[in-house]
């Protein structure tokens, strides 16, 4: 049996979970000067944080459940992220067709007015009434509303949090599993397992940010008996060939009181979601046929030409770890978060719930609970976000690397922002960037993702770092996987 190596000096914080909450806490704590180790059993953002609806939003529908504090906080965070991460977060207009059989016009108008009020001081336009102008809609020419929220590349938000944490001194260990932890008065002794085997580390505080696995980790590897319960709710999405024109999204009210989003996705698709299905297992992410039918029906209620199964090019489901507050309907369960601090010995902070939009605020609140000063990231750009005007930045990218095809230049400008030069270097032709894996993905970009963003498989790159999985065929993906395997061997 391989011996377990001796432990070095204790970390200040050992963070379990490489999703948006874990990486945001790692970033803030590292900026505050703490000695940080973050461990993730898979890839960064491999779970819930890459399977969201890709929205940086206040949550208009949360107003119906009187979640005013959550909406106000989320809208304030939306403004911060639009300013500090303009490459991966940008404004997105939403249009809401009015159906008199659902929410009455005055109620919707009042909700949007309140949403505008909570967002005062932000940079986005206010809501307004409009005439619908998309011939694909049954209600074309009818009345509706327009309001603004934000789009986010969810997985890149997680990765860039981790990059900033690492550059501030944190250690990020992916594909590393927490096996057990023994608690003493002033520190934890933790056994971890990675590809090289088991090893031990010590930490003064553990932060349990395992998302859908948080309760399992708390009662299993951490050996605790108390703590909140979480409710696992699967949110599923389908990706279809582009079925609505324009660069705006649609908010589609449903007869059951829910709303479904139809969002322009990449260049060629529409993202439709989401469902809300309570599950027992954090790995139960496979979209069910009933969910597919629900989402198609939700869109077809508004579309002049109905979508069929053959229009679907992809689907995904993510498990939301919501605080179990006893609410019967999944749609009514709070999306707020709860931080539970246990100081019965070495400190343990467990994170329950939360949403993409409020992760930065949650991280600051976590540091406050732990009594850690500093770490304020409100004015700190995420890596690559050191500019203000994306249009001007994209024009500079086109001028410096004119050989890039338009979709490739735009994708890379969004993904890497002002760090795109570290990826493309002094390349003057596409061939300077090495082997072509398809859809503009070249070896030099792959090397960068391996060296600086913890990518270790084709799936890491095509579904989380770039979203190019919708454009590559199986042979190209196999070739990419072989290249990565050789590079990291």
UniProtKB/TrEMBL annotation:
GO terms for biological process: glycerol-3-phosphate catabolic process. GO terms for molecular function: glycerol-3-phosphate dehydrogenase (quinone) activity. Its cofactor is FAD. Keywords: FAD, Flavoprotein, Oxidoreductase. InterPro entries: DAO_C (IPR031656), DAO_C_sf (IPR038299), FAD-dep_OxRdtase (IPR006076), FAD/NAD-bd_sf (IPR036188), G3P_DH_FAD-dep (IPR000447). Residues 12-359 form the FAD dependent oxidoreductase domain. This is Aerobic glycerol-3-phosphate dehydrogenase.
